[in-house]
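Quick note —
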Amino acid sequence: QVQLVESGGGLVQAGGSLRLSCAASGRTLSSLSMGWFRQAPGQDRVFVAAINWSAGSTYYAEYAESVKGRFTISRDDAKNTVYLRMNNLNAEDTAVYYCAIRRRYGSSWWSVYDYDYWGQGTQVTVSS
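Predicted structure written out below.
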């Protein structure tokens, strides 16, 4: 029922920037996390960033160590969209980027296995 559509990927030179978008539809109000993951060729899908909602109806952002300080996750409630701003891109960032929703209590925001809905992915290629 929940649908996620990523966009904004493409080819960028090393040191450049991109902003990915994830448009959500369906039942998303009860989501615990909206996250970004990425998967490079021949590699596992790994955590990149997430917005996590607490029991107090506030939220906080978490980042993988490899992107902390370079990537910023944000949201636009009016557009029901989550963004990932990526700065200072390098070859290690080349991957298919996926957005995902975590809805289960007792699950972990950093775990690829604990997210319940996934988008189709958008390709990010960093060249030099």
